[in-house]
Amino acid sequence: NWEWDVTKNVIYWSDEVYCIFGLPKQEFGATYEAFLDSVHPSDRWMVKDAVHNALYESKPYSIEHRILRDELSPENPLKVKKTTRFVHEKAKAVCDDTGRVVRMIGTVQDITERKKAEEVMREQSAAIRASMDGMAILNKHEKYVYLNEAHAKIYGYDSLQDLIGQTWRNLY
To answer: CA-CA distance, 2 to 5, in Å (whole number)?
Structure first.
């Protein structure tokens, strides 16, 4: 969790957020600008836009973006390298009695492993779709939940959707 005192421009992070960003407490400037320095340059516009909309239009946000953090190189433990991590961040603005935004509160979660798994699944799915061999996935009721075009053609179907939900026994 984190909290940003907008009037003082001071950010308070939980220990876990420091861990996610790979920063010891004493090395983080604890300002919005210091936080933006950790955001991947290509994603800063999106983060700034989400924060702007939260501050000036009272729109909470839920976004995924990349951060850059220093990590020791496995090849050379004396060398520090920048690595990219993916995070999911949610936040909303909090107003005082006059309606002026005085702070923002939010959460941040490291979703790097999920993003890596999604990429592997995309690559595997593309390989299955492109395969000349017929491939299919059936559920426990022997119904098609996925198949590639080659599999459909083996049975004389042009549309994959014609087979989804059918049992393989219905094709014989």
So the answer is: 10
Report the helix count and the strand count for the chain, using DSSP H and E. 5, 7
CA atoms within 13 A on the CB side of 146: 7
Q: What is the DSSP letter of 170?
A: G
Type of residue at 5: D
pLDDT at 34: 86
**CA pair distance 164, 172, nearest whole angstrom:** 15
Per residue in 115-124, pLDDT tens? 999 999 899 8
List pLDDT tens digits, range 81-104: 789 999 999 999 999 999 999 999
> 131, 116, 27: which is closest to 69 by C-alpha?
27
State how far the Cα of 5 lies from the Cα of 32, in Å rounded to an integer. 10
